[in-house]
Model the fold of this input.
Amino acid sequence: MAPLRLTDDQLSAVFAAAQPLARHAREDFLEALAARLGQCSELGDGAVYRVIREVQAEFWEPPRDEQVNPAPRKYRETDNAAKWETARNRERSGRTSAG
Done:
C-alpha cells in the first residue's frame, strides 16, 4: 500500500480521534483507518473527516457509568434546583422576588 499523504490538520484530526478510544483499540483503529483511507480516490478534508468518524464509531466503547459519574455532586446555591427551591419558599412566605 502506498503511504498516505495527509495534511498536518488531517493528521491532527486522526490523532485527536484516537485519543478518546480505549488504549487497546487505538492501534487497530489507526490500521483500519489507514486501510479505509487507502481506498479513497481523493483525500480531501471532507473525505478524511468522514472516514475518521465512520471508523472511530466502530472502535468506540462508551465509558462505564462509574467512570463518568463516580459520585453525585451536591447542589450548590447557584444550581437551578436550589434556585427553584428558593423561589418556592419565597412564594410560600408571601414574598416575591421584587421585594
